[in-house]
Amino acid sequence: MTSTTHQSPSLILVGAGPGDPDLITLKGMKALQRADVVLYDALAAPALLDYTQPHCKKVFVGKRKGKKAFNQEEINQLIVFYASRYGCVVRLKGGDPNVFGRGHEEIEYALKRGITNIQVISGISSAIAAPTAAGIPVTKRGVNESFWVITGTLSTGELSNDMKLAAQSSATLIVLMGMSHIESIIQLIKTHRSPLEPMAVIQYATTNDQKIVRGNAATLLEKIITQEISSPAVIVIGKVVDESYVFEQVEMQREMQYIKVVR
Q: Is 9 helix (H, G, I), strand (E, B) or coil?
């Protein structure tokens, strides 16, 4: 079966979620089933492509091992090209398209080139899912009053200026794309908060390869090095990190129940 060329061009930005393919929304899954072309990122679970129809063209436009398959301008051009030629293009992006996903830039580009049939389907951001997967509540009454979601690295490669401001607040900090500046981030926390400020890093959150490192500003870096934690990872800073003890108790009880059943 081949795709038709007479369909009006359309673009659907779909949030693929934090990594676990089961965490895509039902609406996102239905969009994939309608797609003539899927442009997908490295953080989108490959299993999600199984929802597409046999005729669907699948194009990888992500980044692996520090190398980009296409830069953003080229991705924008591909969206317009495939939409004009094939019809329904699904842009499958890790997490949520509008949480440091440059989704709005892609919409603006498509609109300026005559594609007006555009839809955005939200996804579960790793900013929420990663702490949860580590047993860390993003908010807890009596522990924190707010949380900030910050990009750790600007497009220039420099540490975000907001990171410096956030370190001076009492808010829980959730840092995306910050591992390349982890030493600087830790130093900011030591300076503006305390060497004992709780911190955690969750790598490959919600997947089978998930790794969790917990500690504080004084101990975290050594643990990261020892356990070879790197990107993609989410950094969580604040007292809610210590609340993960509840999750650990749940896991312990589950293991004890398993042992009883096996015996």
A: coil
Pairing, β 10-15 against β 198-203: unpaired
Read off the DSSP letter of residue 27.
H
**Model confidence, pTM:** 0.88
- Report CA dihedral (252, 256, 262, 263) to the nearest 10 degrees: 150
Return d(Cα 10, Cα 87) in angstroms, integer.
6
Instruction: Output the CA angle 33-39-41, nearest 5 degrees.
Output: 110
Helix axes 72-86, 103-112, angle to 10 degrees: 50
What distance lies between CA 248 and its chain's CA centroid? Answer: 24
Selection from 112, 96, 187 nearest residue 149 by Cα: 96
Place of tokens 């009596």: 142
Tokens of 219: 């101990």
Q: 139-180: per-residue pLDDT in tens?
A: 999 999 999 999 998 888 899 889 999 999 999 999 999 999
Active-site positions read 41, 63, 177
Distance CA 159, CA 88 (A): 37
